């Protein structure tokens, strides 16, 4: 199986970056100019039902997405790699860690979904579950999770990206996959170096959520709160994000892959 992806860089440290629920491999392009492509090789896959794979059928589960990540790594000849996951991509990254821990050098979550899923009250679930078919719901979610503070032009562009790059059925399926997941006992105590990066304006997957989840499970977990960012630091603060991301990864390169 050929896993659709984008790729930049020819460095010796491979990094597989996993997009969020409303994103795609193309969502990372805003970060590309700020990445060190001489030290790192960045790979940006699409999940089934997204981006270059929008018409590819699948079950749209975390296990399936994680299996595709490992298959992609195999196809690219990557014995080990670091993982970066944004939002839902953080849950996929942890599923890869649970299934193939020996392959993972380090893990970075950007406003990541915990391995225990996300609790919703009835009102929030109605908003999120309606997002597959209602673009207005997607816009409201993006606005909410960035603190109701960003330009309407950007909000509209984010919704349009999601509309163009995601199959509605996949959006619906993946919501259940990440929101209702709970496999934290499979990763609890894992010694992999972990960093979680959250925006100060993210009301859901912010500092307190990370302290109650990631920092309870991973003994080598660092936490950083980015000023002037919400849930979408890739767009909101790309230079600051690239800087802290690569500083962390540089400190956790295996000797066999060190530049």
Automatic annotation (TrEMBL):
Tell me a Gene Ontology molecular-function term this record carries: hydrolase activity
Q: Which UniProt keywords apply?
A: Hydrolase
- Keyword Hydrolase found: yes
Segments forming domain AB hydrolase-1: 15-242
Keyword Hydrolase carried by entry: yes
Kindly list the GO CC terms recorded for this protein. membrane
Q: Which domain of life is it from?
A: Bacteria
SUPFAM superfamilies, A to Z: alpha/beta-Hydrolases (SSF53474)
- Protein name in UniProt: Pimeloyl-ACP methyl ester carboxylesterase
- Origin organism is Saccharopolyspora dendranthemae
Q: What is the lineage of its organism?
A: Bacteria, Bacillati, Actinomycetota, Actinomycetes, Pseudonocardiales
């Amino acid at each position: 199986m050929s896993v659709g992806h984008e790729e930049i860089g020819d460095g010796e440290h491979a990094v597989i970056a996993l997009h969020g629920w409303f994103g795609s491999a193309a969502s990372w392009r805003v970060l590309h100019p700020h990445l060190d492509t001489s030290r790192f090789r960045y790979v940006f896959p699409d999940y089934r039902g997204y981006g270059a794979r929008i018409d590819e059928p699948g079950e749209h589960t975390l296990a399936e997405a994680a299996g595709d990540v490992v298959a992609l790594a195999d196809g690219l000849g990557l014995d080990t790699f670091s993982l970066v996951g944004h939002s839902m991509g953080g849950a996929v990254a942890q599923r890869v860690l649970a299934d193939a821990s020996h392959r993972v050098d380090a893990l970075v979550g950007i406003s990541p979904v915990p391995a225990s899923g996300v609790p919703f009250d009835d009102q929030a679930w109605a908003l999120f579950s309606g997002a597959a078919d209602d673009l207005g719901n997607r816009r409201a979610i993006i606005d909410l999770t960035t603190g109701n503070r960003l330009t309407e032009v950007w909000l509209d562009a984010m919704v349009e990206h999601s509309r163009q790059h995601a199959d509605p059925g996949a959006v619906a399926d993946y919501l259940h996959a990440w929101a209702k997941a709970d496999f934290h006992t499979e990763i609890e105590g894992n010694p992999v170096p972990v960093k979680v990066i959250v925006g100060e304006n993210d009301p859901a997957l912010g500092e307190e959520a990370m302290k109650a989840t990631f920092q309870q499970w991973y003994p080598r977990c660092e936490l950083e709160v980015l000023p002037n960012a919400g849930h979408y630091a890739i767009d909101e603060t790309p230079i600051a994000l690239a800087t802290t991301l690569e500083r962390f990864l540089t400190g956790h390169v295996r000797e066999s892959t060190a530049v």
